[in-house]
Each structure stands twice: as C-alpha cells, then as structure tokens.
C-alpha cells in the first residue's frame, strides 16, 4: 500500500477538465514539496509539476498543481487524447527518510 | 540536453548479484543528487535509493536496505547500484533519475529509459 493515496483511475472527454488527487500526511505532503509525473505507455516518467505548482519549461499550461495541508491535486484542462497516461504524485517523507510515490492514476480520455 | 543511460540489467538467479550503471551527460553531474527508482511489471513506481551530490547522504528503501549499495563517481559522471542477494520481488525496470537539486529531498526532474532486471531460476 502506497504512503500517498491516489484514485486508481480517472476519465474525461476531450476538452474537459479533470483533477487527480493525492492524499498524504504531515510527514510528507504536509511538510514537503509535491511533484507530479506523467508516464505515457511504454515510456519513462516525465516531470509535469515540481514544488507543488511549478511547471518545467515545455509543459503546457493546461497542467496545474496545487497543495493544501496534507493533500495535493493535479488539474488538466482542455483534455486531449495524448494526455492518456498514468500520473504519479511524489513527495519526500520525513518519517521514512525517502521519497514516496502515490500508487498512480490511470487517466482515460473517452 | 540531459541524458541518462542505464546498463547492466539482465536475467539473474535468486541470491546472485548484479551491478547497474548509469552514464550521465548534459549537466554538471557533481552538482546534483541522483536516485534509482524501479517499476515492477504492471505496477507503480518505487524509490530504491538515492545519493547526494558529494555522497555525504545516502538513503535506501526498507525493501533493499542491507542488500543494495548505491555509489557514484563524479569524475566519470556515473551512478551505480550494486544489488546483492537478489530476490524474485526485485524483478523490475530500474530507472536512473536526476534530482532537481544537490540533496536527496529534491525529487526527480529527469529519468533514463531504464534497464530491466529479472530475477528467476
């Protein structure tokens, strides 16, 4: 069982806005930055969001991150077919002295 | 352009050893912490181990502590993972990942393509 909790699946139609949640605790999300990764089928993960809400260059502004207390969210607006992928949240965990991932959310674009 | 190229994976019997390598380029290697992250077939991501820029801080997941050893050679821009006493549950694609900063708490901003380790008799 993952330390960070994500819904196993999410879906939306093209153009819609979807959000993926990530729930943690005071030792991880509550006191450290949250990162989000996108993993397209058969490829390595790619950084989408760092430091809770910052986008690396090249990541479209359709992707946004937020954090409140011990939870975080990834929002994808203007959903496109190429957004179909697995999404993972991650954060350093002070109690475990290491980074931890959520279990991943499989996003389906209907 | 940041490039991370893993090597050293393969098929190994339970109880044996394997050494993974990661060749880094496109950035100042000794400014950044580095990590190994694995993904079992059809499963999620699991952090394995990390090492700070100067090897002064090292961490391991409980599942590999005492069996795996991470190291780096800044002169060769290379990261290593020595894996001993391998078990079937260590079967996974092992990714080398660059940290966004010099310390372990900065998580991953670039990933390699991975090297597959299969532990089976």
Q: How would you describe what is shown here?
A:
The complex is a heterodimer of chains A (110) and B (121). With 110 residues, chain A is mostly beta strands. Chain A has strands spanning 9-12, 18-23, 34-39, 46-49, 63-68, 71-76, 85-93, 98-101, 105-109. Chain A is 0% helix and 45% strand. The mean pLDDT of chain A is 96. Chain B is built from no helices and eleven strands. Chain B has strands at 3-7, 10-12, 18-25, 34-39, 45-51, 58-60, 68-73, 78-83, 92-99, 108-111, 115-119. In chain B, strands 2, 4, 5, 6, 9, 10 and 11 form a seven-stranded mixed sheet that branches. Chain B has a four-stranded antiparallel sheet with strand order 1-3-8-7, with no helix packed on it. In chain B, a hairpin with a 6-residue loop joins strand 5 (45-51) and strand 6. The model of chain B has no long low-confidence stretch (mean pLDDT 96).
Distance between the termini of chain A: 28 Å
Question: How would you characterize the largest beta sheet of chain B?
Answer: 7 strands, mixed
- Which protein chains are joined by the largest interface, and how many residues does each one contribute? A-B, 27 and 22 residues
Give the total of beta strands of chain B.
Answer: 11
- Helix proportion range of chain A: under 10%
Taking pLDDT < 50 over at least 5 consecutive residues as the criterion, the unreliable ranges of chain A are none
Total DSSP E strands of chain A: 9
pLDDT averaged residue by residue of chain A: 96
Tell me, briefly, the overall form of chain B: globular
Give the proportion of residues in helices of chain B.
under 10%
Radius of gyration of chain B: 13 Å
Approximately what portion of the residues of chain A adopt beta-strand conformation?
over 45%
Give the N-terminus to C-terminus distance of chain B in angstroms: 40 Å
Distinct helical segment count of chain A: 0
What is the element string of chain B, with H for helices and E for strands? EEEEEEEEEEE
Rg of chain A, please?
A: 13 Å
Given the structure, what is the number of helices of chain B? 0
- Strand residue percentage of chain B: over 45%
